[in-house]
Amino acid sequence: MINPANGMISTSSSSANAQSPGLKTYFKTPEGRYKLHYEKTHPSGLLHYAHGKTVTQLISRISQRHQHQRPHLQGFSASSGVRSAAARLLGAGNGGRALGFGGGNGGSKSLSGSSRIGSLGASSSSSSMTNTNFDGKGTYLIFNVGDAIFISDLNSQDKDPIKSIHFSNSNPVCHAFDQDAKDGHDLLIGLNSGDVYSVSLRQQLQDVGKKLLGAQHYNKDGSVNNGRCTSIAWVPGGDGAFVVAHADGNLYVYEKASLKYEEKYFILTFISHGDICDDMLALNILQSKDGAGDSSFPVIKDQTQFSVAHARYSKSNPIARWHICQGSINSIAFSSDGTYLATIGRDGYLRVFDYSKEQLICGGKSYYGALLCCAWSMDGKYILTGGEDDLVQVWSMEDRKVVAWGEGHNSWVSGVAFDSYFSSPNSDGTGETVIYRFGSVGQDTRLLLWDLEMDEIVVPLRRGPPGGSPTFSTGSQSSHWDNVCPVGTLQPAPSMRDVPKLSPLVAHRVHTEPLSGLIFTQESVLTVCREGHIKIWMRPGVAENQSGNSETVLLSTSSKEKPLLSSKVGSSSYRQ
Amino acid sequence: MGAAGSKLEKALGDQFPEGERYFGLENFGNTCYCNSVLQALYFCVPFREQLLEYYSNNKNVGDAEENLLTCLADLFTQMLASTVEVVSKHFRVARACGLVETLVGNSILYSNDVIMFRLPIENGDTISGELEACFAFGKVEDAHEFLNFLLNELVDILEKEAQAAKSDPETSSPPEKIANGPKNGHANGVRKEPLVTWVHKNFQGILTNETRCLRCETVTARDETFFDLSLDIEQNSSITSCLKNFSSTETLNAEDKFFCDKCCSLQEAQKRMKIKKPPHILVIHLKRFKYIEQLGRYKKLSYRVVFPLELKLSNTMEDSDIEYSLFAVVVHVGSGPNHGHYVSLVKSHNHWLFFDDENVEMIDESAVQTFFGSAQEYSSNTDHGYILFYESISASSKS
């Protein structure tokens, strides 16, 4: 999998666990060994020189129409297509693809295309890769690398994806799947250019081509916002509504498009690209033929302030713009019940909004540097963030402050997630202790697992005279620790000595490239590196042959784990 | 040549910062390492301002012989003065480049017969023998060595001038003015008292080297000053992590025991480095050139070392966590230590600029991450951040 130079051919179907030297195929935890089970990758051997963070998502129950078959293995349903495994990838980077950056603040794009910066452009694959092992059932992984979206069958030992969708105009950088989507459009894809598509995943999988089919196109050519998409999410229970975050600090709310809208979206092509800033653009767009739509949003007066603007006409889409921060919004996450929306970004702030009230509830700054990832606990009590200070931060919604810093990564933290399937095996019987298990991955190529036992970290460790009463000290730097701060205020960066520290249970080097994300499933932990290689680590005690057959109802990452929430959190606080 | 202004002016439009101009510096044959460092220093605003202030205060004092300080000040003056619309652009650029040439030609790069002054120099055409001796140490092609040399040379010059002013109390300019800073011990006449120059005020920090004897538990602390921190690097790590390793506790044992004054013998000991006084301008040098014994030569480490745009030093002895903001990066381009190229990234008025000798381009902030290094050993990306310049943004650290 190492491709030192452009143009090397990747033999992605080589032996299963042959990995770079020094990488073990298991790691130990207090509850047992996690073993490397499968790997997933993609046919592009080229280093896509990843700014494009690979976002991976787990998908199950693509549609309600079950066929009572399940794909244990590759061969089972291979009859549906002809696999052309040869000629996978040709030749050197043509430099044609823009890199993942560009756009950015203020719409300045001046350097993309410079020979120096752009010297590592990725190539688009010209191979034919048209196999559909899709039978509508099972669990699938969807991930983006370079100019493509790939879909792999989670429970197949085949490393290669069963489907790839290539984008010719810009790279896909984020996506979101909603298994409950009613009208069939269940997959959202955000592009580097700011464009957004919604499609039916089933429709894509049933086709053998490499093009996106039947897509609804929003923000065409960046007409509403030409900043790169950074994160995209369905609104839980939002009846097809979704939100898209952009690199310029704006977030747009879209409602499910009816056909009427669809017409309109294809009209948005006349916008000139120029040196006009985003806000100017927003003023000039969306004159639909029937004259009804004008989703112009006012110019943002103060870039540093949160503001929400609604479209003037209710029928226009996007229906609202939230200006959240200066600089990029790097990630967003809804709490599982959809009440709250968390955003993190370049300015280092975590912000938590009441989504329906469009109101800032709380938030705070990283120790230093940008935040890169965030995730909710299933019960909505905690938010994890990770960022450029190498820390995993635990934010308490109850206290509206940081309650712990996880120290252990040797580089930036690029992915965080709670393990909602975890139940503590070694409760000591001394009392009810709620243990939250979570994981983090970083640019140090490592996966870290952590246990958060709230009893242990209730009182912040402090320096200073023990006889003193720091809890009620006034005017000190740390006084904000002792009060729940009022609604709607953002906390400054805490001081190093004020925040209790956590140490990881396990730190394991899992890939050779910086990691970009992780997913917990009932049976495994998935780690993803920025080159788009995925490893599936089976939990201790899960028989290897079991996974292929089990009736897993795996849930997609962000929003759909609610049903498990109550049972899982409950069971993690058990007494022996 | 350096007239990148016009293109940038177009790119920036109304946002072009008033009173700022961006000039590339011509490469007169292998001088890119100078150019990259000079750009970083020029955009180190407190350094630039204090250099120019000192220069204007002392211009007419004494003989004003040509030295590194005057050359640098002349260069910065020209780069700055080019905003004034009285001189034609070509002439301005020529002047700026000519002055670089002077600086460089006089000092380090050329054996004296290569390129000398193309433009007439006002104040004499030779450099002092003393300076010549300083420069005689040979060809320096490492940007970090050049920076080090430059700062130390400036300090030497300032100290000599302060000395001269002190020994000659009739001089019109008071010593405070020469030091351009706080009163610093010259009053008591103790010769050995180190002068705190504006170079020190900007760049100097103090490290404490603490050694704890494991037998008697006595802690020996020794302070040392620094202008930059040289950090060992690891693959796929961050500056934060490298700084942590820099300050981590090291056990001295076996061959490497510590002589404890109290025990009067060699003992096992624990050693660690802490930052006692963080500098206002934090310069971090990544040790990318490593001597490999098996090879008998230096090798470039292309490791991916991420550096955040904001940084805090948590390994300090002070209570407050001082926050720094990245404003310049000197980048080494190339796969080996003996060849390659230097460029620099500079943040000015909230825009990032890319300086490659005489070329200047504007880049997006997110492009900075293309200079982190390579996650794999072999990569076609050979542009690696080499020297990082952070400026303190905490008000408290300015004391």
Task: Provide keyphrases for this structure.
heterodimer; A: 576 residues; mainly beta; Methylamine Dehydrogenase, Chain H; 5-stranded antiparallel sheet; disordered N terminus; B: 399 residues; alpha+beta; 4-stranded antiparallel sheet; 18 strands; 29% helix; 25% strand
Task: Show the helix and strand layout.
The complex is a heterodimer of chains A (576) and B (399).
Chain A: E1 26-29, E2 32-40, E3 56-60, E4 139-145, E5 148-153, E6 163-166, E7 172-177, E8 187-191, E9 196-199, H1 201-206, E10 216-218, E11 229-234, E12 242-246, E13 250-254, H2 259-265, H3 278-284, E14 307-310, E15 320-323, E16 329-334, E17 340-345, E18 349-354, E19 359-365, E20 371-376, E21 382-387, E22 391-396, E23 401-407, E24 413-418, E25 435-442, E26 446-453, E27 489-491, E28 501-502, E29 506-509, E30 515-520, E31 524-529, E32 534-538, H4 546-549, H5 562-572
Parallel strand pairs in A: 19-27, 23-28
Antiparallel strand pairs in A: 1-2, 2-32, 3-4, 4-5, 5-6, 7-8, 8-9, 9-10, 11-12, 12-13, 13-15, 14-15, 16-17, 17-18, 18-19, 20-21, 21-22, 22-23, 24-25, 25-26, 26-29, 30-31, 31-32
Chain B: H1 5-12, H2 32-42, H3 45-58, H4 68-81, H5 89-107, H6 129-135, H7 143-167, H8 175-179, H9 198-203, E1 205-213, E2 219-226, E3 229-231, E4 237-238, H10 239-246, E5 250-252, E6 258-260, E7 265-267, E8 269-277, E9 281-286, E10 289-292, E11 297-300, E12 305-306, E13 310-312, E14 323-333, E15 341-348, E16 351-356, E17 359-363, E18 383-392
Parallel strand pairs in B: 3-9, 4-12
Antiparallel strand pairs in B: 1-2, 1-8, 5-8, 6-7, 9-18, 10-11, 13-14, 14-15, 14-18, 15-16, 16-17
Helix pairs in contact in B: 2-7, 3-4, 4-5
Provide a concise account of the structure shown.
The complex is a heterodimer of chains A (576) and B (399). Chain A has 576 residues and is mainly beta.
